[in-house]
Structure formats: structure tokens, C-alpha cells
Protein 1
Amino acid sequence: MLILSRKLGESIVIDGRITVKIVRLEGDIVKLGIDAPIEVPVHRQEVYEEIQRNNREALAGESANVPTLSTKNGASAILPPSQPGKIIAPKTRG
Amino acid sequence: MKTAEMIEPEIQTISGENVIQIPDGLLGFEQFKKYVLLAQPQEAPFMWLRMIENADKRFIVVSPFQIMPDYQPDISSEDVRFLGLNDPEDALVVNIVTLRPNRVPTINLKGPIVINRHTLIAKQVIPNNASKFDVNHPLPVS
């Protein structure tokens, strides 16, 4: 691991396009300002770990049964295979 | 030797055509990259996402829009490119359900699995607006 020392207000640049700046120091909390292109996802590491833990816990054994939904359109509804995903997704270029 | 009590296991044919490829694996299961999505009408809206390389390992998944009609994960343009989505309609979204003894089952809204319905390339993505969503959102069960 590369370790760099930085003072308040100083930055590092990653790959010429991502800037991480030390914005504020409050006791043992360091506030970082991250400037990255829109297509670069930036998340706290805890988010990945939370989903990892959830996936491990969700792994179902052979004896598991699906739950029964109580909503009106739940248990009786059959998912149409062509149901589009309602997501916000920017279009890719050419 | 076959006995009268023996029950024929249900044979599920998996052709190369309906294999879902998850090149990065699911978080925590990075080594498994091939899955199949199995749906039975009596289990709707739930489906099974089963590992092909490890056939007894599977997840219960559900379309999040059946649970939360206004769910709108904001997929990063990097993930959109990775998945080759040209239009939101190209995407099939499923989220993993967790069952726990004596507790309400939950759905992970923070890490949806987005499948390109044409190429069957998939990824468990972390949406840009992931902080809005709960990893253990309770399901309305009866």
C-alpha cells in the first residue's frame, strides 16, 4: 500500500482524473472531498461489506421455501418475463 | 438399486442459452460467475438464482418493483457500459431476499442485481443513490 502524508487542504491525484482532497479535520474524523468523473463510482467501503455480509446470510439451503407476500398483488401475481427494469440508467454512447 | 420409495429428482435442463454470466461474481461470492434464474409459477413473484458451479447454493430473488413500485436505483454509467445496456428496458432487475428464523424476511435494496436481458451478462451493482436504500428492507409477508 502506498502511504502519503497530506496536510489540510492538500490533495492527491489518481490516474490524472480523480482528485482526493483533505477538506477538514475534526478530532479523529477526516473529511475528504472527491472529484471524480461521473462514471467512476465512489462508495464507502462499509457499503460493500454490508452487501457482502447480506449475501452470505441470504444464501439459501436446499430446504428453504420462498415466503408468501401479504400484499394484494403479491402472492398471486406472476412476474411477466418481459417486465422492464425501472432503473435510472444513462444511455451508452455509440 | 431403485426402490419403490425413491423419488425421481426433478430434472432441470440448463442450456447454455439461459446461463447468466456474472463476471465479477456476487459480493462475497466472487469466485462463482455462472448462475441460472429459475422461476415456478406457484412461487411467484419469487425466483431462485442458483449457482451453476455449486448447484446446491442458491438465493431467493424477487423483482424489487413488485415490492416497492417506486424503487429507482440510479445505475452508474460505468455499470451501464459494463452491462452493455442501451436502454433501461434492456435491464432485468432482481434483488436478493434473506430469510432468518423467526424473523420477517428482508430484501436487499442496496445491492440490486442488474441483468442485461439480451446478453444475460449481470452484475450486483451499488447504485449512485445506494444510501437511500436499506440492505434489509422488510418484506410484507403474511
Protein 2
Amino acid sequence: MAGYLSELEEPAAERFFAELANERFMTTRCPACANTFFPPRTVCPDCLGHELEWVELPGTGTVYAFSQQHHAMYYKKPDVVAAVDLDGCEGRVFTLLDAAFEEVEIGMPVEVTYIASPFGPTVHRFRPV
Amino acid sequence: MKGVAIAGIGMTDIGVFDHAYPADLAVQAIVSAIKDSRLEKEEIQALFGTPTGYMVDHHKFECQRIAEYLRMPVRATGEFDCGGTSAMTALRHVALEIAAGRIDAGLVYSAHWELPPNRMRVEHGDWQHIVRLANAVYGSYDSRFGVLAPLQYYAMCQQRYMFETGVTDEQVAWLPVVLRDNASKNPAAFYREPITVEEVLASPMLSPPIHRLEACPMSAGGAAVVLASEERARQVRESVPVITGYGEAHDDSHFMPSIGDMSHFPCARRSASEAFAEAAVGPADIDVAEVYGAFAGAELMCYEELGFFGRGEAPAAVESGRTRIGGDMPINTSGGRLSLGHPAFATALLEIFEVVTQLRGEAGERQVPGAGRGLVHAEHGMVNGSVVMIMERS
């Protein structure tokens, strides 16, 4: 991250993308609430406690909804995009799907893969299991 | 909020302009609304507005500059920043000031424009800057996957709605057709040429299941509303619309909900319930409504969440003509966002412009006969927050 101003909005996002470069799909857990939530935060959204721990998620989930985008900044078009309900936590992630649009179905199990981006940090892309 | 009237309305042209003067749209709308109100400029004691655009980052302190430009020494100025509901939140503040007896009249305005995509890189310099702007709107997690507009979220939202209700592509495609038919009777609408269901379905697929003709056009425009005490407004006009119900709600989500489902809009339902309760009426008592819908699927979902139709029943109601001018529940007689145009921050005020025009009986060819009670709905994000306001002719 060159420069003073982070490209990301807050430190938990910075850590999340840094961990993706190590091929670890991480989020935060509040031991007091026994709740693991995504996206990660610096504070528990339920009890507002700061004693959070970083945990690695299994990186699997199911397709909740999906679409296709033809114009994006970084990637080859068209991309399949999806909202994936993540296993092992309470939360959903917006991601790319490494699959043909016609082959994707709601409820399909998927798993995370990682792609290095020439324009910024490594990002996640899910694929059918 | 009792005893507050909509005393004046103003709007600018809506469209795509080759060259934007950031403050000019606001000034045009404000002057037009003050003249329409028949009040003296000096009576306006509050001036509140909205941001100018989502990806415009060099445009600040517009309210204050306009107070100077138009020589309006008001009690207070300010800007409310909450996407498509901003203008309603600003309006609520001004209305409460009037209801509390602190001021007799105040003004809310909004003027929206965006840099076209091909100008964004030129004006903003580099992608890093654009990513930071997109982060600020959509959050750090999504913008690097290419989210620069809420299209993909709405696509997935509509997909879930169709998946859960069995609503079909053809049914959704009826909405743009009906809106365009309404717009054909509105000289102010951006798009007025009639279209067919076949044309909607043959238009390019932007992000499945959303076709281009099911998406709002990118448009610039401004609007303004003068609020006054009912007592003062009635001194200059015999019949004025007064606010009888107001409801607002916000969910704990921003664009794509990270928990909960994407096929319902709880905030829209909650805000409608509050407004109907305050006005002591129900959806069937509304003569004319303007509903905020940036995309056809979400607009149909909003019709249902607001209580006009049951779950999954809005598409059939639209197809059968119930929401047309002349139907039993006319909605978006202006042409709606898809055909009137959608300068998002200004849209709520454009909706008020249309409903007040209807309540005054001045809507010409698109007049709903005997319209006495109207509803406006605004939302922001992917309907993460919602405002509903009911007005009645007094």
C-alpha cells in the first residue's frame, strides 16, 4: 500500500485482503458472543466488544444468488458474480465465480480460490465444488 | 408534522447534458419552486439540500453558496446525505421546524449529476482514486470486484425474488411498458416513445435478469419543494396538499445484505406502516402514488412491500393495467424512474412534484380524476432504507 491513504476503508479489510495473499480466507470472531461473522470488523457488531480473534474459515459456501457483469475495472469480461453464503460463519460475500453462467444454480456448493491481481491485493474467486 | 403544506414545487429539465454547471441545476429548481409557491423569497427561513452525486467529490457547501448567491439570510442551511432518501430526510427536518412553529416556510432542493463513465477517468485522474470513491459508496469488499453501480446487487435481488415467487421475465418486462405509456403523457419525461414487451426483452442484457429497458437511465436533473405552514400556504392558494403521514426505516444492511434475505425490503414495509398509521388510511385509500424504483424488478417488489399488492402479485396487477392512469391504483404517472429519468438524489422531490401536480388537478393528459390523496416513496442503497410520505388535498 503505497501512499498515505489506504485503498481500503478500515483496518479489518486491510487484514482480510492481506490474508488472501497467503491463501487464507479469514474473518473475525467475538468469543464473548461466540459469534463468527463476515465481513470481519474491528469491533463486534452485537456486543461492541473489541476482544476479537481472527479465525480461518473453511472457504466453502453455497450460491445464494448470481449474475453476470460485462463492465468491470480489472478483469476479463464477462464475469459471473455471486452472493455466496459462507460456511462456518454468519455472513455472505460478494465474489466472482469461476464457472460458465449457464452452469450456475442457486444453492450450488462452491469453494474459494485465489487470484493475484496486477492492480491491487489478491482477491477471492469461488468455483463449483 | 401536522399543519405542514407543500406550498411550491419546481423542477429542471431531466436528461444527459454535454456540460454540467454544478450549481446551476439547483438554482433553477429553487427559483422555480419559490415562484410557484407565491411566497416572498424573504419568507423562506430554511434551506436544505442533498449531495450532488455519488461519484462527484469536488462539490461542497452548495447550500451555503446558494444562500449567498440568491441572497437568502435563512435561519439554517445544511445537507442531508443518505442516497435516494436524502431529500426526504431534509424535508422532514424542515417540516418539523414548521410544525414546531419555529419557522413559517422553508425549502428543500436537490440537483443531481454524475460524471459519465468515459469522463470519470479524465476528471478523477486515476483508478486508485475511483476505487476509493467506489469504496466510499459500496464498501471495501465489493468495489475491487468491479462494482461501480448497484446494478449487480439489484440483479441478484431480482433473481431471488423471481426464484421465490415464480415471477417470469415476461411479467417483469410489462412494467417498463406501462411506465413508458404513462411517460408518453408527460412532457417532462426523458423517454416518451412507447415500447413493447418484446422490445424490453430484446434490449441488451445488462446483468441477468436485468435488461437495459428495465434499468433507469443515467440522468441529471434538479427539483425543489417549498414547505409552509398550512395557514400561510392557504393565504396564497385556495387548495394546498398537506402532509398527513410520514414514515421512515433503515435496515442494518448496506447494498448487498450480509445477513438476511435479499428478496424482501423490510424497511419499505416498516416505513409504509408508520406513514399509513399516522395518516389513518390504508394502501387502498391512496389515489395516486410515486414509487422509487431504479430497476423494474425492485420497483415491483416495492409495490408489494408498500402494501399495494400481495407478495408476487404486483407483476400481474401491472400487466392487467391496474397501475396505469385510469387503473384502480395509478402508480408512477410521471413515467417513473425508468422513463421520467432518475437523478437519484432529486428523485424524491420529483415524485413530490408529480403527486402535488396531481393533487392540484394540473396533470393534464395524465390527470388521475379526483385525486385527493397521494403517496411518495423513496429509498436508498438497494432499498436498505426507505421513506414514505402521504399528502392530502385540503
